[in-house]
Amino acid sequence: MYGIGEAAADINAARQELLANVDRIYDIVDSGKEVSFEDRAAGRRTQIRAVWRAVAAVDQIFARSGGNALRMDKPLQRYWRDAHGGLAHAIHVPGTVYHASALSSLGVDPQGPLRAMI
Question: What is the pTM of this model?
Answer without folding.
Answer: 0.84
